[in-house]
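Hi everyone,

Forwarding the result from last night's run.
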Amino acid sequence: MVNAEVPQATLPNLTGIVDANRRTDLVMAGIGISVLIVAMSLLAAVVIDLIVGGWPRLINPDFYLNFPSRHPLQAGIVSAWVGTILVMLVTAGIAIPLGVGA
């Protein structure tokens, strides 16, 4: 049998490993926070651009009261509202009796 020596884990070796892991954790946390800041900044820029560009249409009541149209200034969302309400009513009409009966 071969008599192999197993290296002993000494305190200085473990301290070095722990310090290296801490440095790696800090670097990765910094990279993650940096990427998060960049992504949130881009998202905020897109949302602000949408709000600034769409604000005149959002405060116009014709947008909420007209049906879709080929003409952008006359286009509205009434049919989308009606469709959404109908889907919700049908869903509630099915889900509530099934939920109560279950």
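Helices lie at 11-58, 61-65, 78-101.

Cheers,
N.
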